[in-house]
């Protein structure tokens, strides 16, 4: 069963941070998803990212394979990933490209697998510019999330989560074909994201769906429409662990609709050495911690290991 979901819209430019934080808190408790508008990233830059993304994915496969992912950065071909590991079908019907920061210790240790400048002369410059811009939005958003949790605005900075974080941009192309068979196919099978928050841009092609109550059977899937110029934001697993389940890491998926679809996701994953344990504002004697402490890098590495085990 599918219906359309109406999500809260957060104006991240509002000077009233407390009211904005309250809206974020309600959205994270009730949905785990919300829109962010007035984020300050120029529309021309967002359009440029989609344009360059299409140019890469339209290259011959042998050219794309020259940037094959290493240390989870670079090109990932069709069917290489299966987000819902309970499925017995082939992998998800999508191809993607991961890129991280070119700066800091992580940028030196895990270099990006850039496509050839001879093929895509504007590609690297466009992607590096977008990465810096969306990282700035993510940092601002995490400050508001901290306020929403009755913490200092710079809480996630002080605990080291944003010190050389493992944040990545993922460019995604979904071919969109609906395969006629007895087995349902997915662009991205049902999953939750791994980190703190995800900031997503999509084109005008639908397909994104969320399930707000993953324990309910049958699952109720609701369509998430695009809001032009705004990010679709969702909470990840590590934030759910930090908040003792107060903020939802909501199950979501992408269904093929018969049309090619592009999206650009920014996963704000914290520094791998950051310890993720229940926040003092989210537990008590009557509501003890539900999750044991874990290093962010250990959790994310294990999730990737399972997802790519084929």
UniProtKB/TrEMBL annotation:
Gene Ontology molecular function: dioxygenase activity; metal ion binding
InterPro entries: DIOX_N (IPR026992), IPNS-like_FE2OG_OXY (IPR044861), IPNS-like_sf (IPR027443), Oxoglu/Fe-dep_dioxygenase_dom (IPR005123)
Gene3D superfamilies: B-lactam Antibiotic, Isopenicillin N Synthase, Chain
Keywords carried by this UniProt record: Iron, Metal-binding, Oxidoreductase
Domain of life: Eukaryota
Sequence ranges assigned to domain Fe2OG dioxygenase in this UniProt record: 165-270
Family: Belongs to the iron/ascorbate-dependent oxidoreductase family.
One Pfam family it belongs to: 2OG-FeII_Oxy
The protein's name in its UniProt record: Fe2OG dioxygenase domain-containing protein
């Amino acid at each position: 069963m599918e219906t359309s979901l109406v999500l809260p819209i957060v104006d991240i430019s509002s000077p009233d941070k407390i009211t904005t934080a309250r809206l974020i808190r309600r959205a994270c408790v009730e949905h785990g998803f919300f829109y962010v508008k007035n984020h300050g990233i120029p529309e021309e830059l967002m359009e440029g990212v989609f344009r360059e993304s299409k140019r890469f994915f339209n290259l011959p496969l042998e050219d794309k394979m020259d940037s094959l992912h290493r240390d989870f950065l670079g090109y990932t071909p069709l069917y290489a990933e299966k987000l819902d590991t309970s499925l017995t079908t082939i992998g998800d019907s999508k191809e993607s490209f991961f890129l991280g920061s070119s700066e800091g210790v992580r940028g030196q240790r895990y270099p990006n697998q850039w496509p050839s400048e001879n093929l895509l002369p504007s590609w690297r410059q466009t992607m590096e510019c977008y990465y810096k811009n969306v990282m700035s939005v993510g940092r601002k958003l995490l400050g508001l999330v901290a306020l929403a949790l009755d913490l200092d605005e710079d809480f996630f900075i002080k605990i080291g989560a944003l010190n050389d974080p493992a944040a990545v941009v993922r460019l995604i192309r979904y071919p969109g074909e609906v395969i006629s068979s007895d087995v349902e196919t997915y662009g991205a099978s049902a999953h939750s994201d791994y980190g703190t928050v995800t900031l997503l841009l999509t084109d005008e092609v639908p397909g994104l769906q969320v399930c707000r109550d993953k324990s309910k059977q049958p699952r109720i899937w609701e369509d998430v429409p695009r809001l032009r110029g705004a990010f679709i934001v969702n909470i990840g697993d590590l934030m759910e662990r930090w908040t003792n389940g107060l903020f939802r890491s909501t199950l979501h998926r992408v269904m093929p609709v018969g049309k090619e679809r592009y999206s650009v996701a920014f996963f704000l994953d914290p520094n791998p050495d950051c310890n993720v344990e229940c926040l003092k504002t989210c537990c008590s004697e009557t509501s003890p911690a539900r999750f044991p402490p874990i290093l962010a890098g250990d959790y994310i590495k294990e999730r990737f290991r399972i997802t790519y085990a084929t």
